[in-house]
Structure to design on (263 residues):
């Protein structure tokens, strides 16, 4: 009979770090997941830019985006970034602004909390990340669907929060297409802050989302050059709303975060 071989005990597989913040702004505890690229721990003088992502739980988009950062940094198509995933508690509350549309308010018990969520990021999360990790001043944010709505809304209302904005299939239908309809006014109101900002938009084959995003892109085309905003819109018609995040992120990371040697 074949001799039995000893088997090692299975151990947890670690791909990042996690901690919690007791948020006074939100009145709840929030879990934060962080992916640190290879080489950071061994290089005490290395500082990294930070890519923030809503929908950043382990059961959400954190794992596949962390994997994309890992392979992109490894094959030198992307600069190293610290990836900070914000795990959801009430996603539809945090990702949406106020609405006057009755059907919008039916999607969750509470909506319209995006301003508070930005305040949490600005006053609690960002200082904690700077305390725990060696970072540069450069920041970016990435989101899809309602998180994409949050990304666009943040650019239009508080553009100084991040340097680079990545929005995939943004839910610009929210509040009767408010952000699209008010884009000229909102862009002009931020005229002095957009000159150093970059926006990347991508859409799938979702007809309503494509129509709203194209309208928004037309408003950007009319105003962005005057305001200094760098932006790009890439339709990905072979993707669905369920599949767009990964291919759009791959394209955006390679385009906007490529190493200096590839520019």
């Amino acid at each position: 009979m074949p001799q039995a071989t000893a088997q090692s005990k299975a151990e947890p597989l670690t791909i990042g770090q996690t901690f919690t913040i007791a948020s006074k702004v939100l009145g709840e505890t929030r879990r934060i997941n962080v992916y640190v690229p290879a080489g950071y721990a061994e290089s005490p003088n290395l500082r990294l830019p930070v890519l923030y992502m809503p929908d950043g739980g382990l059961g959400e988009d954190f794992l596949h985006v962390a994997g994309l950062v890992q392979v992109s940094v490894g094959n030198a198509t992307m600069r190293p970034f610290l990836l900070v995933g914000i795990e959801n508690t009430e996603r539809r509350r945090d990702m949406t602004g106020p609405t006057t549309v009755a059907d919008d308010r039916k999607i969750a018990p509470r909506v319209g909390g995006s301003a508070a969520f930005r305040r949490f990021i600005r006053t609690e999360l960002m200082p904690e990340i700077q305390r725990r990790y060696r970072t540069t001043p450069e920041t970016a944010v990435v989101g899809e669907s309602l998180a994409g709505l949050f990304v666009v809304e943040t650019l239009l209302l508080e553009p100084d929060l991040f340097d680079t904005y990545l929005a995939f299939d943004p839910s610009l239908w929210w509040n009767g297409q408010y952000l699209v309809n008010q884009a000229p006014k909102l862009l002009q109101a931020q005229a002095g802050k957009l000159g150093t900002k970059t926006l990347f938009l991508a859409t799938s084959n979702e007809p309503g989302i494509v129509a709203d995003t194209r309208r928004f892109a037309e408003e950007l085309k009319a105003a962005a050059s005057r305001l200094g905003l760098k932006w790009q819109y890439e339709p990905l018609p072979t993707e669905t709303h369920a599949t767009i995040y990964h291919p759009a992120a791959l394209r955006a990371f390679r385009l906007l975060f490529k190493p200096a040697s590839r520019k």
